[in-house]
């Protein structure tokens, strides 16, 4: 199997998971972590203390100097487009964090660049890799729940996410772009159906009071081609004392049954005087680590599996498999486009105060 040479652009709070994944794939001889890029030199230096790679502050220089086969783009949402297009034009396969772009036009440009250059463009919709969601998918595809008529999905973050983690660019995002986009793709994938119509409302107040001009919460009703209507509820203003940094789940009801998945509460809780909040719930299905026989930290979970699957797919391409022959769980640029269509329509509906039809 070919051993892709890999780089990561954006080494922040989630970029570190891409580094973790590629480092352990390097240990196994499956890939080679070659380079990493970030504008923040202090962060770059911190990552170099933990990982081995050639550092860059200019991704164009990295693409020019390193003969990379694949790159992860893990920058803020609104900065994906230019970088992905530059990677595609450099004949490099791309895994882009969600959302692919915050405009439909941007998604189309990125997809076109990938096709023009014959490279793979994937979006890291890692909820597709959650074994709980995959179990639901198998049952849905087998028709065990009949025709899905309605459902709801929710994803909520503690306020620390926009206030502390993303303070520099939260104003350019929203709970729909940062959180909802996961479930817009997940439900579309589970139902195997595209969205056709959206009605949404948003609320502001909490974040704007601390100088972050974005929505606190967004509720959207989305109708799909198969007739199902799903309510998506997203927010990122849960109090600091809430027991989990993220709370999430979904429910789908059909003519023959119901499917429910609490994607946060996996039954693991801890309580310590050193913790804030003191009672915590944990989601080891997403990210967990162990130590291998050499005492090295090895990360697992669906947050890692989606990244590893991208590299394994790139290996197939380097070994001669056509992109058109590929099938799997991974989300393509076209999938990213459809999720962006939903999120874009949701924001339009909030502004216009009316139902918005999704045009293609």
Q: Major beta sheet, specifics?
A: 7 strands, mixed
Reading side by side through the largest sheet, how are the strands ordered?
A: 3-2-1-4-5-6-17
Number of domains: 2
How many alpha or pi helices?
Answer: 10
| SSE pattern | EHEHEHEHEHEHEHHEEEEEEEEEHEHE
In the CATH scheme, what's the topology name of the largest domain?
Answer: Dihydrodipicolinate Reductase, domain 2
What fraction strand? 25-35%
Specify the structural class.
alpha/beta
Care to describe what's here?
The protein has about 350 residues and is α/β, with parallel strands linked by helices. It has 2 domains: about 160 residues, NAD(P)-binding Rossmann-like Domain (Rossmann fold, 3-Layer(aba) Sandwich), CATH 3.40.50.720; about 180 residues, 2-Layer Sandwich (Dihydrodipicolinate Reductase, domain 2), CATH 3.30.360. The chain is about 35% helix and about 25% strand. It contains 10 helices and 18 strands. The strands form 4 sheets. It has a 7-stranded mixed β-sheet with strand order 3-2-1-4-5-6-17, sandwiched between helices. Strands 12-11-7-10-9-8-18 form a 7-stranded mixed β-sheet. It is globular, with a radius of gyration of 20 Å.
Give a quick precis of the structure:
The protein is an alpha/beta fold and about 350 residues long. It has helices at about 15-25, 40-50, 60-65, 80-90, 105-115, 130-140, 160-165, 175-190, 300-320, 335-350; strands at about 5-10, 30-35, 55, 70-75, 95, 120-125, 150-160, 195-205, 215-225, 230-240, 245-255, 260, 270, 280, 290, 295-300, 330, 355. Strands 3-2-1-4-5-6-17 form a 7-stranded mixed beta sheet, sandwiched between helices.
């Amino acid at each position: 199997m070919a051993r892709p040479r890999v780089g990561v652009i954006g080494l922040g709070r989630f970029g570190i998971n891409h580094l973790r994944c590629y480092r352990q794939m390097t240990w196994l001889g499956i890939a080679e972590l070659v380079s990493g890029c970030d504008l923040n030199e202090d962060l770059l230096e911190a990552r170099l203390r933990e990982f081995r790679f050639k550092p860059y502050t200019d991704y164009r220089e990295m693409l020019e100097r390193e003969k990379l086969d694949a790159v992860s783009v893990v920058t803020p949402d609104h900065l994906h487009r230019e970088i992905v297009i530059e990677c595609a034009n450099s004949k490099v396969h791309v895994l882009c964090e969600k959302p692919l772009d915050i405009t439909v036009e941007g998604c189309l440009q990125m997809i076109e660049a990938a096709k023009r250059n014959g490279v793979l463009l994937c979006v890291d919709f890692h909820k597709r890799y959650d074994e709980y969601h995959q179990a639901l998918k198998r049952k849905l595809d087998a028709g065990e729940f009949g025709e899905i008529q309605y459902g709801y999905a929710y994803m909520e973050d503690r306020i620390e996410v926009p206030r502390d983690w993303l303070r520099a660019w939260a104003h350019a995002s929203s709970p729909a772009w940062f959180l909802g986009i996961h479930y817009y793709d997940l439900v579309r994938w589970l139902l195997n159906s595209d969205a056709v119509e959206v009605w949404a409302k948003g609320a502001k107040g909490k974040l704007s009071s601390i100088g972050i001009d974005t929505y606190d919460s967004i509720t959207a009703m989305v109708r799909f081609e198969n007739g199902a209507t799903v309510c998506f509820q997203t927010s990122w203003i849960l109090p600091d004392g809430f027991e989990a940094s993220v709370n999430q789940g979904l429910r789908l009801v059909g003519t023959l049954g119901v499917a429910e998945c609490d994607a946060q509460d996996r039954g693991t809780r801890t309580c310590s005087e050193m913790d804030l909040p003191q009672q915590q719930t944990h989601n080891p299905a997403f990210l967990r680590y162990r130590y291998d026989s050499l005492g090295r930290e090895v990360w697992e979970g669906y947050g890692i599996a989606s990244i590893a699957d991208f590299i394994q797919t790139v290996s197939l391409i380097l070994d001669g498999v056509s992109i058109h022959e590929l099938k799997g769980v991974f989300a393509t640029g076209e999938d990213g486009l459809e999720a962006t269509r939903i999120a874009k329509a949701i924001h339009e509906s909030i502004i216009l105060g009316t139902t918005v039809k999704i045009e293609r």
